[in-house]
């Protein structure tokens, strides 16, 4: 039965990455950079609602079908239907983005329910961590394969065919999900959840601050396409390279960097990532507009981003009270996603004030410099005020099979 669970994680990774290039280029064609940044922020909103999805699936079953499997079924069926028709509405930008946001919500709900079932399996396994490791491998494999095949199909055909083809993977999930076994849990108390969140309010606030510095990713992508004439091939190569680097960062952390002093690890990763991001300004200013620089920068930034985020995710899991692991952890992840949403909107606001458009990138370097400096300043303040959590982290026996970040958060870590 675990093989079916692994397929669901593979499907989640695949449907998140396969249409990425097609959606990215479609949005670039029909909108401005500011509108695109706002659109990506809207599509990230469902990922800020993970605790709500988790509480619904924990508390409200559908007939006698179970508490999680029906939601996975309905969300997969709806997303499959929307993938077939969403491209038909590309001429109506607001409706197009709304439908993509609904698809994002379906994937998010499926992800939350799959995580809940994984926790059940993990509690029953004799060899701790095997299920979590295998689900993450399945998800990462789906992400990598999705980037490769999605980019190739987009180059060979068009965005409409890419989105239509994507409907088959969640459709298969509709049939696979009924083979899963899920245990019956008591309905969680909102008071218990509230108390745990209240106890860790400082940690939650710190996580939010760590993610709110302005994000210029969308505007940088516009520059690569409009000024450097990058096509789908280049963007596919960049996505694949970043995904492989992300996995290498995860493996390296598990077997090597987790032994480092956490404060030393965080600060070094932040400094290295920030210095490499400065080369992006050089690309925008025309000093070295070479593909190799862009790719190497993305690889190092993705690698360092995973080293930065893993200690936070481990701490978040360890700070959960007994019996509230799913609710608390999903809330923490939603706070991080809400921070990313805020960062996208701040980036769009600053870009609007600077006059950065689809054709005017004169002051893009200013936006990038503001974002990078804010990142470093914010990180310094966060690290300085996390002494208590660093001590707690060092006192923990870190499980190398700890649940890592969702791929959606790769964008957060690589701001």
Q: Might you state the CATH topology name of the largest domain?
A: Growth Hormone, Chain: A
Output the helix-strand order. Answer: HHHHHHHHHHHHHHHHHHH
Question: Which sheet architecture does the biggest sheet show?
Answer: none
CATH class of the largest domain: Mainly Alpha
Mean pLDDT: 78
Query: At CATH's second level, what is the architecture of the largest domain?
Result: Up-down Bundle
- Measured by DSSP, the beta-strand proportion falls in under 5%
- How far apart the termini lie comes to 38 Å
Helical residue percent?
Answer: over 70%
Number of domains: 2
Shape: globular
- Count of individual beta strands: 0
Q: Tally the helices: what do you get?
A: 19
**Spans of at least 5 consecutive residues with low confidence:** 396-415
Structural class: mainly alpha
Over the alpha carbons, how many angstroms does the gyration radius reach? 21 Å
Notable features of this structure?
single chain; 415 residues; mainly alpha; Growth Hormone, Chain: A; 2 domains; 19 helices; disordered C terminus
Give a structural overview.
It is a single chain. By secondary structure, the protein is mainly α. It has 2 domains: 1-180, Growth Hormone, Chain: A (Up-down Bundle); 190-415, Growth Hormone, Chain: A (Up-down Bundle), CATH 1.20.1250. It has 19 helices and no strands. Helix 7 (130-156) packs antiparallel against helix 13 and helix 14 packs antiparallel against helix 17 (364-384). The longest helix is centred in the N-terminal third of the chain and has 32 residues, at 93-124. The chain is globular. The two termini are 38 Å apart.
């Amino acid at each position: 039965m675990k093989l079916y669970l692994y397929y669901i994680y593979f499907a989640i990774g695949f449907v998140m990455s396969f249409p990425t290039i097609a959606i990215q280029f479609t949005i670039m064609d029909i909108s401005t950079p500011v509108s695109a940044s706002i659109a990506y922020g809207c599509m990230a909103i469902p990922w800020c609602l993970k605790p709500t999805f988790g509480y619904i699936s924990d508390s409200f079953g559908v007939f006698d079908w179970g508490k999680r499997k029906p939601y996975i079924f309905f969300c997969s069926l709806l997303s499959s239907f929307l993938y077939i028709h969403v491209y038909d509405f590309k001429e109506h930008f607001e409706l197009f983005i709304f439908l993509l946001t609904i698809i994002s919500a379906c994937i998010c709900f499926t992800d939350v329910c799959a995580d809940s079932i994984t926790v059940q399996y993990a509690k029953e396994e004799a060899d701790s961590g095997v299920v979590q490791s295998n689900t993450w491998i399945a998800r990462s494999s789906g992400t990598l394969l999705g980037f490769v095949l999605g980019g190739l199909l987009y180059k060979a055909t068009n965005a409409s065919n890419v989105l239509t083809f994507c409907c088959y993977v969640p459709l298969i999930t509709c049939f696979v999900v009924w083979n899963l076994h899920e245990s019956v849990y008591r309905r969680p108390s909102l008071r218990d959840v509230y108390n745990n969140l209240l106890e860790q309010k400082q940690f939650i606030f710190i996580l939010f601050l760590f993610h709110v510095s302005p994000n210029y990713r969308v505007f940088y992508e516009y520059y690569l396409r409009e000024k450097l004439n990058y096509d789908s091939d280049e963007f596919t190569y960049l996505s694949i390279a970043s995904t492989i680097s992300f996995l290498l960062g995860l493996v390296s952390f598990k077997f090597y960097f987790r032994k480092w002093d956490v404060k030393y690890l965080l600060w070094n990763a932040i400094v290295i990532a920030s210095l490499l991001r400065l080369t992006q300004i050089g690309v925008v200013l025309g000093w070295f507009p070479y593909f190799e620089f862009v790719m190497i920068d993305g690889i190092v930034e993705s690698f360092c981003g995973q080293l930065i985020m893993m200690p936070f995710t481990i701490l978040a899991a360890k700070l959960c009270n007994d019996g509230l692991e799913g609710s608390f952890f999903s809330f923490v992840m939603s706070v991080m996603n809400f921070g990313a949403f805020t960062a996208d909107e701040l980036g769009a606001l600053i870009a609007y004030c600077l006059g950065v458009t689809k054709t005017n990138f004169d002051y893009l370097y200013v936006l990038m410099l503001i974002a990078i400096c804010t990142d470093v300043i914010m990180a310094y303040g966060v690290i300085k005020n996390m002494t208590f959590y660093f001590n707690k982290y060092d006192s923990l026996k870190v499980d190398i099979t700890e649940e890592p970040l969702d791929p959606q958060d790769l964008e957060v870590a690589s701001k």
